[in-house]
Amino acid sequence: MTDFDVLRVFCGPRGEYGNDLGVVRDGSVLPERDERQAFAAKLGFSETVFVDDPERGVIDIYTPSVRLPFAGYPCVGAAWLLDVPELVTPAGVVGTRLDGEFSWIEARPEWPEPRTLRRYDTAAEVDALEVPPPGEWLYAWAWEDEAAGRIRARGFPGRGDGIDEDEATGAAALQLTAQLGRALNIVQGTGSQILTAPQPEGWVEVGGRVFLER
User: Which of these, 81, 82, 57, 72, lies nearest to 105 by C-alpha position?
Assistant: First the structure.
């Protein structure tokens, strides 16, 4: 059996909620892409990270069905676990920092796969949404308090791989921050919290709390 950790990323203020992330700290035990894909599918988390070089922060990310060049919450989790100044992903080099209870990454909005960012009039409309049929990656959001930058959101990957709704989605939060051009405090899913802030030259910081589940 391959050893792996389970982190909860983007937890709420009291350590509740968050999105489960599988992390294989020694990626050499599953060196081939098809092996990693099969293991990620077996775990069934939204994403699983394989660490190929813990000192340099080289990571490889998989959903149950596809390999991703970059993903938000896996990078936030890996940044917390590895405590390195940067992560190396196929999409590019991700800046990282730890600040009190929050783990932060800095990345570019064009790195993740495209998503439909659909605004609704009220948070109640977002809460009432049914899971849409597969086909598009939908990030549904509404202002809870526009002046304060507070948002209610839900994420629907639409891949048909068993992850009907993503509890917390750093990449979508990154893209929404770039679109709106302001810092955000997002509550996604059942109560996960994502913080973001635009940075110079089109970069965006995404941060949240991370806890070791097991």
Answer: 72
Residues 172 and 69: beta-carbon distance below 8 Å: no
Q: How far apart are CA 132 and CA 211, in angstroms?
A: 30
202: left (phi over 0), alpha (psi -120 to 50) or beta: left
Which distant-in-sequence residues (6+ apart) come within 8 Å of 19 by Cβ?
Answer: 8, 9, 10, 46, 73, 166, 167, 168, 169, 189, 192
At 214 the pLDDT is 81
In 100-198, where do the E strands start and end?
102-107, 116-119, 138-145, 150-156, 184-188, 192-198
For tokens 């922060």, name the residue.
Answer: 57
pLDDT digits (tens, 9 = 90+) for 175-196: 999 999 999 999 999 999 999 9
Mean pLDDT of all residues belonging to the chain: 96
Residues 87 and 94 sit within 8 Å (Cβ to Cβ) = yes
Percent of the chain with pLDDT over 70: 100
